[in-house]
Amino acid sequence: MISGHGLHTGAPSWVRLYREAGPVRFRRGGATIPAHVDFVVDTRRSTTLGTAGGRVATVEHLLAALYASGWWEGLVIEVSADELPILDGSAAPWLELLGDLGPPPPPPQGLVVENAFSLRHAHSTLRVHPGPARLCAEIHFAHPAIGKQRWCGGPQRFGELLEARTFGFLSDLEALRAQGLATAASLQNAIVYGSEGPLSPLRFPDEPVRHKALDALGDLYLLGRPLLGCVEVIRGSHSAHVAFAQALLREAMLLSLRPS
To answer: Keywords assigned by UniProt (predicted)?
Structure first.
């Protein structure tokens, strides 16, 4: 079990993982919520899954750890609150918790990209084309301490993303809290950028883009299977990632199945 506080709600929250046959799903009280893009109900600053029986927010970091470690089925995620704990702002604590369960079940067939596809969503551009599994993320920020950054890697490098922490700007914090967001944000669970740079040391020089790639990986986990193709995410967002995943599943000519 792991516990902490939700980043946005600030509420105490614990999570327990256990093996159980069937698809990966969340369990909140009496509600079961599949870890699938069909159950996304909100993408405002995080990804929220829900059914008529309940919802669970800020799932993307745990889902990124599941993707990187190859957990695609046989797992129940029991949660105590409406938002997962933010922990240290990265996915590394989730990977450690998964390690307590032993090896994951064999992976399901992957979704093979058969044709190129692109999507524009607000300020985001997402593309995919046939080829070996690979994720590229690119970010552009006006802040001089971030600027333009890019990260690319295949499944063997996804683990490099998991220690990268969520980040934000001190100048935005008051407005976010007025919207009921980021109420528990602190230097213990996020990189906070002031006017001259981060207020605490970075784990990597490119930690911001690594975290954006981590977010994309977690949201793409909601496809329900590994995506076997080359994905590029430029100025990604949770809403763009989810729209992209939904579009991929709608376009029958884009994908086929084969062993991962």
So the answer is: Hydrolase, Lipid A biosynthesis, Lipid biosynthesis, Lipid metabolism, Metal-binding, Zinc
Q: What is the pLDDT of residues 5-62, one digit of tens each?
A: 999 999 999 999 999 999 999 999 889 999 999 999 999 989 999 999 999 999 999 9
Domains and CATH numbers, the chain: 2-259 (3.30.1700.10)
* Pairwise CA distance, residues 201 & 208, whole Å: 12
Looking at residue 177, what is its pLDDT?
A: 84
Q: Is the alpha carbon torsion for 189, 73, 50, 243 positive or negative?
A: positive
Residue 220 CB-density burial (10 A; 0-12 exposed, 13-18 middle, 19+ buried): buried
Pair 83, 9: CB distance under 8 Å: yes
Burial of 155-188, coded b for 16+ CB within 10 Å and e otherwise, reads beebebbbbbbbbbeeeebeebeeeebbbbbeee
Model confidence pTM above 0.85: yes
The tens digit of pLDDT for each residue in 130-160 reads 999 999 999 999 999 999 999 999 999 999 9
Contacts of 81 (CB under 8 A, 6+ apart): 6, 9, 11, 12, 13, 14
Residue 238 annotated in active site = yes
For 49-88, b where at least 16 C-beta lie within 10 A, e where not — what string?
bbeeebbbbbbbbbbbbbbbbbbbbbbbbebbbbbbbbbb
The pLDDT score that the predictor gives to residue 213 is 99
In the sheet that holds 148-153, the strands lie side by side as 117-121, 124-129, 230-234, 134-140, 148-153
Helices (H) and strands (E) in the chain, counts: 5, 19
Among residues 5, 61, 238, 241, the one annotated as catalytic is: 238
